[in-house]
Structure prediction request, 129 residues.
Amino acid sequence: MKEAVSTTNAPAAIGPYSQAICVGNFIHTSGQIPIDPSTGELVQGDVKEQTRQVLMNVKAVLEAAGTSLANVVKTTVFLKDMGDFAAMNEVYAEFFTDPFPARSAIGVVALPKNVAVEIETVAVASGTK
Prediction:
């Protein structure tokens, strides 16, 4: 059975989707973009600032699901410009530790609200290996 996750500490879903879905021991987060949940506004700035907000949003959703970034097993990073990969990676490394999650990075033509980065994750419930 699947269970929706919702928190006011991350941007609310603006369409027919959930911030995350828990199924068994797995939590699948929807893609997060750099919206400040306290204001509902996009975070302005370069890809580093945007990546930091995206990962703070992911962290909030995972915490609402009872887990953490430490339990992320897979991430998918969508970048509007693959030239931003190194800058995104620098901030990404501040949020994840060894053993790092498996990851895909995909260059895309456009992202919602014309942001530079979007990240989705798959995590396991706390206490699960």
